[in-house]
Amino acid sequence: MILSQSRHGGDIFKLPGGERDGFLDFSININPLGLSPKGKEALIRSWEKEVLRYPDMECRELISALANRYGMPDRMITVGNGATEIMYTLLRVLLPGKVYVPAPSFSEYRLSAESVNAKVEEIPLSAKTDFKIPVEFFTKIEPKSVVYLGNPNNPDGQILNEERLKQILLLVEKTQSYLILDESFVDFLGDSFSYRKLCLCHRQVIIVSSLTKFYAVPGLRIGCSFSTEEIAKKCQEQLIPWHVNGLVQTYMKSALADDAYIQRIREYCKTERNRMITDLSAIDSIKVYPGSVNFFLCKLMRKFKSAYELQQALWPYKIILRQCGNYAGLDESYFRIAVKIKEENLRLVNALRKVLE
Questions:
Q1: Do 103 and 183 fall within a single domain?
Q2: What is the value of pTM for the model shown?
Q3: What are the backbone dihedrals phi and psi of residue 170, each rounded to the nearest 5 degrees, phi first?
Q4: 90 within some domain
Q5: What domain count does the chain have?
Q6: Is 157 left (phi over 0), alpha (psi -120 to 50) or beta?
Q7: Which residues are CB-neighbours of 262 under 8 A, at least 6 positions away?
Q8: Which residue range or ranges hold the Aminotransferase class I/classII large domain (predicted)?
Q9: 98, 206, 325, 356: which could join 332 in a potential S-S bond, CB 3.0 to 4.6 Å?
Q10: Is there a single domain that holds both residue 115 and residue 230?
């Protein structure tokens, strides 16, 4: 059974249970070094207690830990069961008539907009310009809308240029619209690449982050947002009780303070990313869009017409890619791969060489 395109990466559960073992899943962009040692220790020490009691509905200690880690006021922080839950909640709070989403970008931007019956318009990104956001597009946005942007954007990995963002923000604020910046992967780069501090002086800016990726807890799920106190309160009112479990709250409180772990992830992913760019760029059959973080967008240039055909060829090697034909603005020749540990990355590169050269 060959996996076809999915709504998201990581849908290995399409396979029968016995067939899942041994596959390398490059479709998910999770920190390859696994759990924070400090977070894991806290989880092991407290797991039974957390399973046997209700979690803190308001995530008080976790919000305090997030405030300390990111230098933001507690009152501006909302915690959710992943960034996706927060996106849907924000749209229920803001209730825009129209939502602008980059194409390509994370599919839940569009789906969260459609969940509140908002009209959706795409912001076209082009491979010819390395998927840079076109500032001129924002001269025509409608009043009281919502604009989603990724920093960095998924699937191309492009970060937002500061000067370009300033121009966009000026145009967005003129229309009394909201700018939601998805910074789900910015922790892989470092705090200097984040625009979360804009929330302190721009009421129309909201930052959303999936902590799941960097802190390696996709099975527990956790995300947060930074916004005005008013929006944070309204989001909390919309969220169901006990939506963030006690296990992930316990883990994250310690993981957020694990400075050595945080630095090790950034250094490791940067080193492996640079090596993978060199190795993959040497394969003539694919074009690599380097981006900036722990994943790459690639395009087939010859031999195979679609990423599905490439996936078929890689199946005997037990390697799974993220086929990107279902991203708006991309065709079936595009695929995305994540940075994993060195041995696994080498296994991928060697398999690609065998099937493409």
A1: yes
A2: 0.95
A3: -60, -45
A4: yes
A5: 2
A6: left
A7: 187
A8: 23-347
A9: 325
A10: yes
